[in-house]
Protein 1
Amino acid sequence: MKAIIGVVGAGTMGAGIAQVAAQAGHSVVLTDTNPDQLQRAEQQIVKSLDKLVEKGKFSFEQAEAIKASLTYSSQLSDHSAASLVIEAIVEKLDIKHQLFAQLEQTVGPNCILASNTSSLSIASIGACLKDASRFLGIHFFNPATIMPLVEVIPGVATSHEYTNQIEQLISSWHKTVVVCKDTPGFIVNRVARPFYGEALRIYEEGLADFATIDWAMTEIGGFKMGPFTLMDYIGNDINYTVTETVFAAFYYDPRFKPSFTQKRHMEAGFLGRKTNRGFYDYKEGSSQPTPTKDPILGKLIFERILVLLINEAADALFMQVASPNAVDLAMTKGVNYPKGLLAWADELGAEWVLDKLETLFSEYGEDRYRPNPLLRRKVREQSKFIL
Ligand SMILES: NC(=O)c1ccc[n+]([C@@H]2O[C@H](COP(=O)([O-])OP(=O)(O)OC[C@H]3O[C@@H](n4cnc5c(N)ncnc54)[C@H](O)[C@@H]3O)[C@@H](O)[C@H]2O)c1
């Protein structure tokens, strides 16, 4: 069904979400308090649609119709006819509260309101609304036009009916939708933590350098990018902040403990590609370190990171954050993992995974390596995660 969709915030995420909704055939109103940002968003969307015409994804006429279905405005009142408004403004609770309080007075009683927040709870944002039953999280990944995954997150007050409506609507936008609980990091930003955290830990212990860890994860593990290359892409400031936020939100569970190495890189301004220097040097003419291609060390690195990732996926399932299929889809479609982690555990055998974790746990005696009870149950029952 074609509808009027509102997007508030025309930055990195808002512009992409607006384009996705317009490409799905909706009339879209994109608002931002900053007129320059609106102009930039329009230029970016036009350029992206022109490229899609060149690639043959749309005809010229289709792309022109999509462009015409988008309206850019600095007036929040222009969302009055919307049936869904997605917020993608700055990640600050008080500013989001101000916006939603105003928005609630602008839109009709059946308009669904959503936030694209990465790190705030849906319950905390929705608390400012008179009717929070129509409020939920719709979490797109960056870039929203390309990444297929969308996490849909009902809060404690959200009605099932609205959640189902949104699940169907966003699926019709050619996205893979996973529904998950309103818990820190939702699925992807929680389950992916060891990819970075354990890689940093292995480096800090002096077991291997950045290049060797990246080599192990790509060449042996089959991941598209190694953890240090990926952190440099994301930005050490952003990636560190997500880790710190998830750590605090989990009441400082040691599993999520941030790393000094990453903090120091952030403090030094070694943010990654955007500053030409992160874990690697991106300045023109700089040489890249070569990995120690030791297959025994590589296997050790890969398996250590993998079992921690599987343990985290098992925990998300154990704590009912999402279904087994949703957990696996989230990691393959949201962060391009070569396999779903639970399917990977099934392939390797829960016993093998548990054995590796128990070895780490007995060696270090640290909570970060404690095996999840669900893993133990799978071993005991000789059952699989994915049925
Ligand atoms: N960048 C990512 O990779 C990513 C991924 C998923 C989710 N998110 C989430 O999406 C949201 C937006 O992130 P972003 O990276 O697009 O931010 P951004 O800084 O690129 O854009 C935010 C935009 O919101 C506008 N804005 C700020 N206050 C406003 C207000 N009161 N009313 C209207 N417009 C306002 C700003 O002018 C800016 O254009 C955040 O909640 C973030 O956590 C970001």
Protein 2
Amino acid sequence: MPETTQHNFQAGLQITQDQTEFFQQNGYLHFKQFLPRETVQHFLQELNNIQQLLLEKGIDTVNGIPLKFGRDGNGDTFIQRFAFASHYSKLFRDFLKDPRLQPLLQPLQPYEGRIGENEKDGLVVNHYINTPDSAYKQLGWHTDSPRDLFLGSRIMPMLNVGLHLDDYPKEKGGLRILPGTHNQGIFSLLFKKKYFIDNRPDPKEIGFDIEAGDLTVHDGRLWHRVQQSPYYGEQSRRRVMYIPFVTGAYAPKKADSPTPLYHKIGKVLLKAKKGHSHRPQGNPQPVLATEKTY
Ligand SMILES: O=C(O)CCC(=O)C(=O)O
Ligand SMILES: [Fe+2]
């Protein structure tokens, strides 16, 4: 059982000295109850609406980023990961304008940070559930930064800000991180663990006692993973949205943006290995680093 962070903060219009120092040292922050439960309920409803729309329209890629599909307990297809959610929702566009998000750009200084609504994968929705036909039960160790290398540019500072939509105490699984690994240099960034293949707990990892509405922030270079739940079905359901906070030249994606190479390689290899398409017919696991989507 991983240690849990005892460092919960309250978000405000300023990021405090304490928070800045904690972030510099550890590479993450955990803010309690950024959104009230009632708003979380609206968000979950909105996600259902968007999912219905995407399924009805048969959309399987948004701005070049493939959706990840799974099947629920009734055998119905649902979406386990999709990108650019705010492009489908005024509620989410407004959320990205919440003035309390702005101070969270501060750890990126001296770089000028911005909320990447149209960049990278935009506002990402992850939906994990532990069922036989789930395509997304866990996620192996990785950092979020090396995708920049795939895109042909050098690694720029970035943060990933997670808005958690389900109660998830650490014993249910969920996010695990290795504090301080954002400071360990390029060798650690690339080779500390086998990207996405290694799901093993690390003695130094920590977990989070998450309540719906909490916000986490992690440095793009921090090693992290998602632990599979020991529970099954409904009890294991975990929904979290991630906002990229980015630096560097503005690089928006568009409807005709090409699928990044790492998605394509992953898809082809996975198909060859499992003998099926992107839509689920079994129990695909993230077996390859390149299958991971960014
Ligand atoms: O689900 C999470 O909390 C983490 C997801 C993640 O690390 C990613 O999508 O890069
Ligand atoms: Fe990640």
